[in-house]
Amino acid sequence: AFLALNACKDKENELLETKVYFEQAQQRLKLENNVSSHAFNITARVSNISDSDVNVTYQIGDAQMVADYNAKNGTKYQMMPAENFSLQKNSTVIKKGSVYAEPCQLALKNLSTIQEGNTYVIPVTIADASVPTIEAKTLFVEVAKPIVINKVFDFTGRKYLSIPMDEKAKFNALTYEAMIYVDNFVKLSTVMGAEGNLIFRFGDTTVDADQIQVAGNVQFNPSKKFAAKQWYHVALVFDGATKRTEIYVDGERVAEKTASVNSFNLNGDFFIGYAYDYDGTRTWKGKMCECRVWSVARTANELKNNKLGVDPNSEGLFGYWKLNGADVYQKDGNYYVKDQSKNHRDATSRRGAYQSGRGLSVEPDVVEMRISE
User: Closest Cα partner for 103 from 149, 196, 33, 40?
Assistant: First the structure.
């Protein structure tokens, strides 16, 4: 009993002992494109007010810490290049009777050289202190330079894209992605896909026009209602190993279903903003950009963190059409939209009936609309 009592007292004393730590494990900064420098305050704190000054020393972590951070969080961030930041001083003090340390400034600089769409990490660690530290002794500062989109495609007027899908379009895993903006809702309005096989669309006989639906060899929809005149990121994710099929909106899963198949063969007619010749009303009534097809099942983090752009060389990127106007070209009287992936599946811009590829090719409508994260 005596030993147990003393053990309890030791534990109580340990809990009451003043310790230093970071209040948050990570903090995220979003920088506008026109910002070339920024100052960020690093501030540790103590668990209990001390009756004497507490000295604290900081240290910048290394790339391995960033790799471990990515592994823990399912991210693919990079260590911030050394030329883009500096810790103005690495020591500070928590004054007697205070909770927080006097701030040390982390200076971000030369930010015009930082690539748009990337997130960088600076790990700052409490290297030494005059009182013990606890587990939360590292702050991961995430520095994001969001992508800004200024132009998108307008699909109104029965305009759409046809994309050649060959024998390589056989998927044991698959992801559709797009940024969408609905001008007005109509039933059976197509985002993308292959009719009767796997298509992403709005509305059906039992689905309201403002609800998104997966149809074909798997069919389901979330209860979520969409609003007109608003940008959304939508994704359809299929994993053949589990047959699990999911719908995501702005990186959040809103519906799922187990498919009856473990693969999809999309060899044949594939469209963005169109379904098939027999019903010309199944077109998209609005705007789109950042349309992608993947041969992998993208994760929630990947969807959420890459809505407005991805690396064209990303593993599993089967086709990527940015639809920002800069990817349009004309050849032999036809208008094409460049596939940004390495697979060169350029889309043909069309209007009206497809007619097995003999339909009219027209210049796409590119309109100015700003989208930012």
Answer: 40
pLDDT in tens, 259-295: 999 999 999 999 999 998 888 788 999 999 999 999 9
pLDDT in tens, 119-131: 999 999 999 999 9
Q: What is the dihedral of CA 251, 150, 294, 238, to 10 degrees?
A: 30
The string over 178-187, giving b where at least 16 C-beta atoms fall within 10 Å of a residue's C-beta and e elsewhere, is bbbbbeebbb
CA distance 171 to 154: 29
Q: How far apart are CA 351 and CA 361, in angstroms?
A: 6
The model's pTM is 0.76
Q: Give the whole-angstrom CA distance, residue 54 versus residue 94.
A: 5
DSSP letter for 84, please: G
Q: Which two tokens stand for residue 323?
A: 């639809």
Burial of 314 (0-12, 13-18, 19+ CB in 10 A): middle
Q: What is the mean pLDDT of the chain?
A: 92
